[in-house]
Amino acid sequence: MKKGQPFKVTNMLPKWSQPNALEDMSFKTHQKEHRNVQELERENEDLKGRLREIQQEHRILLDRINGLQLQLNEEQMVADDLESEKDELRRLLTAKEKQKEESSRMLEALKSKLRFYEGDHGGSGNSFGNRKEDVLLKQGSTYSAEPQAPASAPAALQSRSMVRPLELLSPSLSPAASEAEALKRELGNLRSCYDAARGEVSRLQLELSHKAAECKALAAECERTKQESDQQIKQLEDALKDVQKRMFDSEGKVKQMQTHFLALKDHLTSEAAATGSKAVEELKEQLKDTKAKYEGASAEVGKLRNQLKQNELLVEEFRRDEARLVDDNKKLQRELSMLKVEHEKRERRACEAEGQLKEAAAKLAEKLEKVKSSLSGEVEEKARRLAEAEAERQKLRTEAQGLRAELEGQRGQFAQYVRPEEHKQLKVRYEQKARELERVQAELKHQSQAWQAEAEKAKAGHSLLKQQVEALRSEMKSQYVPLKISEEVKRASDVTVGELNKKLAESREKCQKHSAEAEKLLAENLRLKETVGQLQAAYIPREKHEKEMRALKLTTAGLERQLAELSQKYREQQAKASEFASKNATLQETMEEQYVPVATHEEVKAGLNSTLERTGQELLELKDKMESVKQEFVRVSDENGTLKRKLRTLQSQVQGGEYINTREHEAKVAALQKNIQELQENGSEMQAKYQAKQEEVAQLHAEIKAQKKELDMIQECINSKYAPLASFEEKERCFEETAKELRSQLQKEREQRREREEEGKKCSQENEKLKARLLSVQNDLQQNYVLAEKSHEMERMFASKMDGLNKQLCELQQKFAEIQCEKERLQEESARQRSEAREAESRLHGQYVPLEQVEALERQLGRTIEELKGELSSKEASCQQEVQKSQELQQEMADLKAASVPLAEHLRIKEGLEREASAAKSALREKEGESQERAEKVAKLQSEIQSAKEALWELESREVVGMAEHKMVKSKLEGQVGSMAEKLAELSRKLEAAQQARMEEAPTKDKKEPLQSRNFSIEQEIKDQKERCDKSLSTIAELQKRIQESAKQVEAKDNKLTYNSGLPTKRQSQQVEVLQAQVKTLQQQLADAERQHQEVISIYRTHLLSAVQGHMDEDVQAALLQIIRMRQGLVC
Questions:
Q1: Which residues form a coiled coil (predicted)?
Q2: Quick check: helix, strand or coil at residue 163?
Q3: Which residues, in sequence order, are bridge partners of residue 90?
């Protein structure tokens, strides 16, 4: 027996080493869990930092949007100034029209006065000539007063803003031209605004794409954190399984102790008589060993109790987390309702903006209709004046027909004779008068033809201007939008951008909006093509224009040179003006395209400064993290040192102990080496992380340097590209010089007008001379006599001349291209009349006429001469009216020339429209590319959704696997409970056998009373331990229930996590924090359960040791006896 006892002790020693190995494993798991928790905390801090960066970027975007709104307000102010300038120009137009009406009334009044004076004072030539000169002087004063009106226009225009400086350089331009130029400039400004808005939209789209990428990255990080939390939960479940295994091991140890105790009891009863004091000592030694084992078992039981407490705390925290998640879900639902309300409000605002757009379009249509009505009124007035001129010509024709009838009536009265000398003188005089009248008539024909040609040109130019104005109106209606509406559209787009940053689902609606914009651009492109076609159809072909110019040049040989010189000068000035306008446009374009305004530069500078500050904060955070990493490394190194010290102490203990096996020692050393390797690996990982952080810091420094370089480059570009004030002042001087040259040219044109007026005065003086000659002819007729045949011939000659004049007047009204043939016909008639006059002179040499007939003829001739004078005066008045009309037509021609657009400018406008069309096409292509990119993005999002669905399916499969594992663990636990019940039954059987042996050994009672007392105490201890074992079994069952409940809660949380995975990053961060808290609570519960298990094992060991030593409490003995009786009852 002595040889067998050490063998039993050596077999029991590995069981003592098992708790230490379990403690080492639990320590490792705690370290791993602690590291995982730290990593989760770091990731949570990184996510918070990223959220802060996103919020800062949102604030920067809002600041930029406010700046753009301010710019739009400034542009709206400029548009209001332009409208006020338009109103001033319209007022000037009305004032000028009133002046023209007053001047026409004055001319009519002067014409009526002239007719009255000519009718009253037909005999007095000198007085008539003086009055005629006075009238012409008054007309000259009116003509000189008319050009002063455009000179007063610039003074009114001086109060205008300097938005369009080129309008101030051309004060001689008509209001229609200034309005056309203002519309063009407004079109240019609106186009530039539209381009700027388009650039802003593209920039916002890029920022949206960046934000979408960031959101995708955050979603990926959230999924990663979720996976890590799932792994941690699995690790915790594994740890719980380990705890359960430890509990089962402790229960097995308890059962082994019970069997060993029974064996000792049997050994004591069997060898009590044979053995003496030596057996008692051996039993004491075995009791000590069992006490030590009991202490270990009680400590393990204490650990299990601690773990149970921790599991209870975990369950409570799980419930709290569930309550928090419910509250978060409610808050998110409220936020969703608020977002829906905001979306409805924005839709209402969009509807209001559409209504305002429609109102603005109606206002623009009204304005354009007003301009159209004003232009149509001007055209109607000009048509009315032309109709009045035609009516006056028809009146003259009727008067000439009346004179012809009177001459035919007077032919019968001219039956007497006149002297041949007087007849010759009259003939010569009449021939001279006829020549002069023919010459005057030819000049008047030329002038009227030139004026009519100029009127036709003016009509054509006016029609072209009308077409251009209509085209510009159509462009304004189709292509451009008011500034208020554009501001509201920008605000709406900014609001949609914020919504898109909040929700990724609204990106599809944005894609639809962009496709609608692409369709609008296509429609605008078609409208532009239509407007280009209209412009091409509106302009006259060049060949037809050249033919008409040639025909007009043949008819207007005298005035063509002057007009050509004026047109050349005008074209030169217009070319200069167009060059200056193109230069100004190019300068504006370069200023808009190449140069950056100060506000945007300051905004970029502020953004870069904010990025620098943010990077500095990130550097500080990284430094703090590095310090924390260093501290953790120091702590790990300290822990390593402590572990080494523990190893040394353990080695010393192993060396100082007596019953330690070499295999256990090697196993412990291997475990410690593994711990050391793990610590070294952790240290290497920390070093790698430290190096990675250092690399990130170096990258951030490099990025900061690159940003500083970019800032320096931007400053250099600003310094190099912005033009200095000196160059701008030189350009202003050039513009002032051109303005002076244009003013000098205007003065030259005024001098030329004055020369023309002097020529008109000379023509009037020649008419007065003709009248004086007619008076002298009347006097000669009164004094002398002519034959009847010669008088008839003279009447015929006068009748033929009147017919020719009437025909010429009719031809002037009807056809302007038949002037040369009319001249030839008149020359033939004059030659025929000369031949007839010669024949009459040859006949008059041999005949005489009586005095009575000559007096009657003289009376008739006086009447006819007076009638002819009246006709001449009326013709002169009509000629003067035609001269005035021609001057007005010339002035209108000059205005129309100033207002019309030359062919070079038309080509330039056409090229600009073509460029805009090509730009619109390129923009359409870009939009199509963007739509394709968006379609690709949508496909990517769909693929991501599919991947998320697959991940959900995987999670569900994992949950199914976890449930299967849980069922397996449950089945194992049930099997273990059954085995424990069987072992208890065996123990009860052994106790019955012991009782039977005790009954058989009744005669030896007196000898074995101390042994019985000890056995009784041992039985009580065994009962107590059984009760504790039952309690531990009940606690195990409760733990299993709690584990099932926690598994259900984890499943519910996983479902909530999968449901809330599409929610914003705030929710994800909250879930991560909740999971971290759950991990911490689970770790605490594990530690408590282990502590409780160790306490139970230590208590069990102490009770066993006290029972072996004979120092068992009465309560413990009673409990052990009760357990034994209960087992006996169960066995029975």
A1: 30-120, 809-997, 1022-1099
A2: coil
A3: none
- In Å, how far are 77, 308, 513, 517 from 484, measured between CA atoms? 10, 70, 20, 19
Three-class SS of residue 418? strand
Q: What is residue 166's DSSP assignment? A: G
Q: Which two tokens stand for residue 299?
A: 């400590």
**The most confident of 611-615, 655-659, 823-827, by mean pLDDT:** 611-615
CA distance 36 to 39: 5
CA-angle at 374, arms to 371 and 379, nearest 5° = 125
DSSP state of 597: P
Q: Are 1127 and 1026 in contact (CB under 8 A)?
A: yes
Q: Which residue has the higher pLDDT, 482 or 47?
A: 47
Task: Determine the Cα–Cα distance for residues 429 and 519; give it in Å rounded to an integer.
Answer: 83
Report DSSP letters for 45-74, one per residue. Answer: HHHHHHHHHHHHHHHHHHHHHHHHHHHHHH
Angstrom distance (rounded) from CA 328 to CA 336: 12
- Cα angle at 106 between 103 and 112, to 5 degrees? 145
Tell me, what's the pLDDT at 7? 38
Burial class (CB in 10 A: 0-12, 13-18, 19+), 646: exposed
In angstroms, the CA 217 to CA 212 distance is 9
Residues present in the chain in total: 1132
Residue 146 — pLDDT band, cuts 50, 70, 90? very low
Closest CA to 912 of 167, 180, 368, 187: 187
Tokens standing for 959? 């949950």
* One-letter amino acid for residue 1123 of the chain: I
Map residue 786 onto helix, strand or coil.
strand
Is the CB of residue 930 less than 8 Å from the CB of residue 205?
yes
pLDDT tens digits for range 84-137: 877 887 788 788 788 778 877 877 877 776 677 666 544 444 444 444 444 444
Dig out the tokens for 1108 from the structure: 């072996």
Close Cβ partners of 633 (under 8 Å, ≥ 6 residues apart): 683, 686, 687, 690
DSSP string, 245-285: HHHHHHHHHHHHHHHHHHHHHHHHHHSTTT--HHHHHHHHH
Digit-coded pLDDT (tens) for 450-474: 777 776 776 676 667 667 767 766 7
pLDDT of residue 553: 59
Closest of 849, 706, 879 to residue 787, by C-alpha = 849
Return the pLDDT at 446.
75
Determine the longest span between alpha carbons in the chain, in angstroms. 217
Q: Exposed, middle or buried, 853 (CB in 10 Å: 0-12/13-18/19+)?
A: buried
Greatest mean pLDDT range, 77-81, 661-665, 906-910, 1064-1068: 77-81
Three-class secondary structure of residue 636 per DSSP: helix
Q: Which residues pair with 1101 in a beta bridge?
A: 294
DSSP 8-class letter at 1001: T
CA dist 1102 and 1097 (Å) reads 9
Mean pLDDT of the chain, nearest integer = 66
| Dist CA 1105 CA 20 (whole Å) | 20
**Mean pLDDT (whole number) for 388-401:** 74
Instruction: Return the pLDDT at 1035.
Output: 64
Q: Which tokens hold the place of 825?
A: 């016909």
What's this model's pTM, rounded to 2 decimal places? 0.20
Rounded to whole angstroms, how far apart are CA atoms 32 and 956? 26
- Burial of 1126 (C-beta count, 10 Å sphere; 0-12/13-18/19+): middle
Q: Contact, 168 vs 154, CB < 8 A?
A: yes
* Residue 10 pLDDT grade (very low, low, confident, very high; cuts 50, 70, 90): very low
Contact 1027, 1119 (CB under 8 A): yes
| CA distance readout (Å), 506 to 186, 195, 424, 496, 498 | 36, 26, 108, 9, 10
CA angle at 808 for the pair 806 and 812, rounded to the nearest 5°: 115
d(CA 280, CA 1109): 11
Dihedral sign for Cα atoms in the order 633, 635, 638, 643: negative
Write down the residue that tokens 């295999």 correspond to: 663
